[in-house]
Amino acid sequence: MAIEIDEPTFVETVLHYGLLLGAVFQLVCIFAVIFIPQSQNDQERPVEEPRSSSNSNCSNQPQPLQPHSKKNKKEKKKFR
User: How does it sit in the membrane (predicted)?
Assistant: First the structure.
């Protein structure tokens, strides 16, 4: 009552080693993010807020949304 295990095919072997290579690559990337310190330029640079062209008093008010298309509804082509 012995169970025979077939030899892995070429495709299964390539898939197995490809998955192992992908796992090692992911671990290297994770360790790089954790252990490599930031460069000096990134640490010294303060986070700047985006500048607006309008007055600073109006910056707290929400900006109106711009329409995606400047065409009127009448000018749009109807598709049926």
Answer: Single-pass membrane protein
Q: Locate 13 and state its tokens.
A: 């072997």
Judge whether 16 and 8 are in contact, CB under 8 Å. yes
pTM: 0.44
CB 28 within 8 A of CB 20: no
The beta-strand segments (E) located in 1-80 are none
C-alpha to C-alpha distance for 13 and 6, rounded to whole angstroms:
13
Torsion sign, CA atoms 38, 43, 44, 50: positive
Q: What's 53's DSSP letter?
A: S
